[in-house]
Model the fold of this input.
Amino acid sequence: MNEQYPVIQGAEAFFLKGHSTGILLCHGFLGTPQSVRELGEALGKQGYTVSCPRLPGHGTHFKDLEQFSYGDWFASIEQAYVELKQSCTSVFVIGQSMGGTLSLDLASCHPEIEGLVLINPAIDIPQFETYRTKPAHDYVTEDAPDIKKADAVEITYGQAPVKAYQQLLGYMDAVRAKLGEVRCPVVCFQSLEDHVVPPANTDYILGKIGSENASKYELHDSYHIASMDHELDFIVAKSLEWIAQANVLPAGGQG
Done:
C-alpha cells in the first residue's frame, strides 16, 4: 500500500546522527514529525542520535490515512527502532499522545529498550467512542490543534476518516491489555488541562505497567500537544536529566 499524495513540506521524517545512545521519537494521531521536531533538535544538540519516522498516512492528505491500519503505524515505528538499534548501543523512546501508545507497545515487544518518556499518552479517549459505530467511510471535521501557545502552528489535517479513528480506538484497546508487559523505566509528562486525552490516562498507565521505576511530571501551562507548548523547555530539561540517569543503570533499570 502506498500513499497517493506528496508529503507536506515540513512534515518529513528526520534523523539526527549523534553518539551511541539513540532516541526514537513517536508523533501522535493526525500529527507529523513537525510536532516533535523542536524537542528532537534539542535532544540532538546534546549529542543523542535522534530518529523520528513519519507514520504512514500522516503528513500527506487525509485520504491517504484511510489505507493504513494501526499495524502499519506500529510496523513503521518498529522498523525505525531496529534501524536505530543497529547504530546505537542503547535506545530510549519518546512518544506523544498516540505516539505514547506506540511507545508502550514497542516496549512490551522489546524489553531491551532502556526507557520510555511519555507525553500525554493515549490509552482511553471517551469522547472518541461514538466513532466505533459510525460508517468507516465517513469523515470527521477536525478542531484546531490543542495547543495553549497562541503562535504555535501544527501541521495536521482539517478532516480525518472515521476508519482512522476506529483504528486508534482498536489500538488503544490492544495496548491497554499489554501494559503489564512494559517493564523498562518510564517517565510521563501530564498536562493538567488537556482537551483531547483526559489526564487520567497517564495515571492509569502508571498504575498498570510492570515497571519498578515509573514517575511523572505535571504540566501547568500546556494543553495536549505539549511538545509545541509553553513548557517545552521544561520537558527537554527533565527528559535529558532522566535519560542521563537511566542510562547509567544496568539494562532493565535494576539498580
Q: What stands out?
A: The CA atoms of residues 192 and 199 lie 6 Å apart. The mean pLDDT is 96. The chain is about 35% helix and 15% strand.
